[in-house]
Design a protein that fits this description.
Elements lengths: L6 H9 L3 E6 L35 H11 L7 E6 L9 H11 L5 E8 L6 H9 L5 E9 L3 H6 L6 H13 L3 E8 L6 H12 L5 E6 L2 E2 L3 H7 L8 H14 L5 E4 L9 E3 L6 H14 L9
Parallel strand pairs: 1-2, 2-3, 3-4, 4-5, 5-6, 6-8
Antiparallel strand pairs: 7-9
The chain binds iron/sulfur cluster.
């Protein structure tokens, strides 16, 4: 029995078969790194803009070709081009089109998914993304992390909740699916903050959520805080309980894209349980079963 809406099942129902994502590095930067919004980036963000596992190659089409060349399994025939790291709408409209087009080069690609910051969405960009919806499933992933503006300042995200709401409304206007990222276990946050973040998200028309666990990677400001004993990551049990809160209180219609962070093994400082995705997924399954919990039952 499915106790929450799993992404894999959603994609299978939508496309009639198993559908996988191709993670692409579009060669973007981020306004929170180049000084136009902030310097140094969000305190948890790694040097590669949270895209360590992407097989980087300068040319986007080559990345896609490399992916298909190395995909030997016959289990999937449909794929979504996923622009993952840094801010994938942070460029001119012309360049954005060139970059998105250079990923859509194979008939097996049925979707385009774009991760970005809410303050890097405007109507022209949304119109461009919408133009792909004639042929592809399109989706935009928006960072939020927390609805606590003080946390937003502390983690140096350099956008506001209002930016997030504006971006969601604009994407809703053009019927583009929105997936929101939140992070559980951010510095100074309690379960109260998680509750507020869930309430805030539930006020918006979003179609999916990615729940990340807060983890510390090398050469980040979060690492410095950790080394100075100014930040303690959650234990696995604490994380599972917070994650359960999110799952049971979030809108039951939205799709759960992930319930853990994807910590790069060679860069992870703490917590070590973050490397064991199965502990998180199985832990949630076990608790939901034991307590007979379902997604959105307290929505
Ligand atoms: S907005 Fe994203 S890419 Fe930019 S610094 Fe923050 S986490 Fe990194």
């Amino acid at each position: 029995m499915e106790r929450y809406n799993h992404l894999n099942n959603y994609l299978k129902n939508k496309f009639g078969e198993r559908t996988l994502k191709i993670c692409i590095d579009g060669g973007f930067s981020c306004p929170n790194r180049d000084g136009s919004k902030g310097i140094g980036g969000c305190i948890f963000c790694s040097e590669k803009g949270s895209g360590e596992h992407i097989n980087y190659a300068n040319n986007i089409s080559i990345q896609v070709k490399n992916y298909f060349a190395s995909y030997k399994s016959k289990r999937a025939n449909k794929f979504i081009a996923y622009f993952q790291n840094f801010t994938n709408t942070y460029d001119t409209i012309e360049n954005l089109k060139l970059k998105y087009d250079s990923a859509l080069i194979d008939d097996r690609i049925v979707g385009l998914s774009i991760a970005t910051r809410p303050d890097c969405i405007n109507e022209d960009i949304v119109k461009l993304i919408h133009s792909y919806s004639k042929k592809y499933y399109v989706c935009v992933e928006l960072g939020l992390q927390s609805s606590n503006e003080n946390t937003g300042i502390f983690i140096n995200r350099c956008y506001s909740n209002k930016d997030f709401s504006n971006a969601v409304f604009l994407l809703n206007k053009y019927n583009i699916d929105v997936v929101t990222h939140i992070i559980v276990g951010l510095p100074n946050e309690t379960l109260e903050d998680i509750k507020n973040t869930v309430n805030f998200i539930n006020l918006h028309n979003i179609q999916g959520i990615k729940i990340h666990s807060c983890y510390i990677v090398k050469n980040t400001k979060l690492e410095k805080l950790y080394q100075e004993s100014k930040y303690t990551p959650l234990t696995l049990d604490e994380y599972l309980n917070s994650c359960l809160y999110v799952l049971t209180h979030i809108n039951p219609n939205i799709v759960i894209h992930r319930i853990s962070g994807d910590a790069p093994k060679d860069l992870l400082i703490a917590p070590s349980w973050n490397l064991h995705k199965k502990w998180i997924i199985n832990g949630i399954d076990k608790l939901m079963k034991e307590k007979n919990l379902f997604q959105g039952m307290y929505y």
